[in-house]
User: Fold these one by one.
Assistant:
Number 1:
Amino acid sequence: MTGRDLSSILARKYNAWCERRALVCADEDRVRRASAFLARRDLAPYERAAFYLHGLTGCEGLEFVAFSNARLENPIMLTNDIVLMPCFLSESEMKGQNFQDPLVRRTMEMARQNRFIYDGCIPIETWDEENVRKAIRSVDEALSIFCLNGRVYFEWEPKYPAPDESKSSYSYEDQHLQELEGVAKVLDSLGEGDRVALYRSLAWLSQSLRLSEPAARFLFSILAIESLARYIEEEAPDESPLAVLRADRLTRTERRARRERCISDILSAWLQSDPTKAIDTAYSECMGIKRRLKIHLEHLFTSDPEPIALLFEQKGEGKSLYDLRHVIAHGTVDALSEAQRDQIGQRVWDAERVARRYISAVVNMALGTEPFSKTMTGTMFIGVQNMVVSSEGMYRGPTHMADVYS
């Protein structure tokens, strides 16, 4: 990549390469106009962040930070003039360096974690919603191609994310820990099959909370419900304490025989005249996950209709949570559409909430223990580097991205 290429992109940036300064603007009217973008719910979070930085600083592009297990030691230009600038030293630059140098230490730490930091920028010529949306999609497209070489990932976020994207932290008190210990003792006293089923469900929910992609978080939360419900209805031994939660009180042998009769009857009626309809009908009527799950949850939540309504009644974009689960699981969601990811992200909390209530209800009703009586409260943290200051000297923190993001 030539110096001329770099200088042309640099001229559009707010920061120097590998720099993340404080947001400086002394014009109160400009701050107010830029801040109005943060309240626009018709824009996805990354779109709001792009308009905010542009409105506040006049930056003619979207600056972002990228993280990857790929070590690219030289700046590169990808499609649509996207630049990735390494914010670490190359192997040749590391030779003979003083290990007390902060950048040397940061480079060594990135190599140890296999997580390298890049300054990214994509120019934006015209600042309207369509072009900003296209620019954000271009970043996702360009970075997704790297996975073809091997197990290479790139994740990225705007260098100045919208403040409402801050994550919450949770403070545990002794009572919370005591309640968790009590639940663990109850689970450990179960038979192996029941114990594995409950911990498997918890693991799906736990893993969803560690992910960043909304579609994966959403799907894992639904799987936490489906995996446990299926076990209770179809696999739990008849003597299991979980068996009392079955909507269907037949034994496993009786359920299998009924399912086989159902399939046989439908195939006999439709296989010759309409094979496709025969297979589809047999699956939905005799083995369909959605129908069985709804019956199971209606039996469990007899006095609490909210989980059923959230899962199966339409809401937002004309889709219930289970409709959304269907389109995600069948690959019809555009994983590179920031708008679609934002729509899914807005429903993730509902999916997590239903999963948490379902697992807690199973523990409470089947095992006779109330999991939690004390509510957890979350605390949102907004970093000082997202604050707008009126002069450069008002911020005294780190500016090199290796320090900011390591």
Note: Residues 171-242+293-376 form one domain.
Number 2:
Amino acid sequence: MTKDILLYENGSGGEMKVMNNDLVLSETLYNQIYLALFGGNVEASTKGNELTNEERFDYWANQLFHRQRKGRQFNSITEKTLFNIVLNSSGRNEILRAIQKDLSFLNSIVDNEITVSIISKNRVEISIIMRKLSNLEDKTLQIIWDNSINEVIIKEII
């Protein structure tokens, strides 16, 4: 596993954790999950046919690092879906499919079980249970999305 800067949710977007004037590092997959679902490139997904002389609205690193490897590109389909759906049973299914697509890059590392629940007229709960392939302890990442303000309000590891 590689080290990464620890991100946490403070109710207004992801923040980098700082302690004793230094960035805190993490060795879990939770940062990758958070970025895959809520990476912020909601204007456009990388299609591979973008013109070089036009402004791009997809994630800049997709073209730079993963041009030939579409499966490694981050497109935050989940966040885009949450911005554009109605919170009903059909919308819940669309969110679930988007999460599955965004997290497909993890399928060779962990087994995951994804649950999407509408918990109020404006809130969606996303639970991702990760089961490591080596049968270590299961961990659950719980995310609450508030549709009225279009942002994650809670991100907890339970």
Note: Strands lie at 4-5, 7-9, 14-16, 18-19, 22-23, 25-26, 110-118, 123-132, 139-146, 151-157.
Number 3:
Amino acid sequence: MRLFIVIILFILWLPIYSENFFTGSKLLEHCDSCVHSVNVSNINACAYCISDTSLIHDAFVERGLIEPKWCIDSEVTLKELTKMTIMFIRENPIGYRQFSTTSVANSFEKNYPCDR
């Protein structure tokens, strides 16, 4: 199922150059500067990756194409999601080599399960 999500994300992001589809280690570079910034904006690569992964998941769930893999409360901020993603990648070294979207999805599954 994770492979399916990555394939769909790749298709949806075709207009974006492949150099923007980076690994977890490259995502960490972008996210560190995002978290330590006073203003977390949606123009940051980290913010795009995290918010788009969540939005695409929610769209698939709403259309009944997949079961929910995670449940993020509406009160959770982008900054918190970013911090949790950074922590997850650092604690799981395989995330350094995975596509950034896979690392984000795995982080969401672990940190925001639907059975809480």
Note: Residues 14-19 have pLDDT under 50 and may be disordered.
